[in-house]
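Protein fold
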Amino acid sequence: MASGRRNVRVGAISQKFRRGPSRRSAFFLSKNAPYYIHDVISAMDINGWTQGEPRYQNPFIQRGDVLMAIEEEDVTHADFDLIKDLLSGEDRSLLRCTFNRAGNESTFTVQLMRHRVVAR
């Protein structure tokens, strides 16, 4: 990751991209391509379990993972506004994201549920 990049909150699994005390981001994503994950707050699987809970069924999304595709659309060089549009959607709708883990040439896909992210 290049130093000096500004991190942006992306309500990736949230219904809308609102700010305020009642909303938090599902994950922090770098603003410029390649889109690195900087932190995961609330990734939810298709059964409603969040990352870190024992029943969570996706591979864990980790800091440094690179977002490669959303719903099978390549986003490696996409505009950041397109990323936001692809990540937004109806509450409880499903979303597939493909990532590449640093130091590993293979990719992995997680199926996530969009949801309201409530401040902790």
About this structure: The beta strands are 7-10, 27-30, 35-40, 66-70, 73-74, 94-100, 107-113.
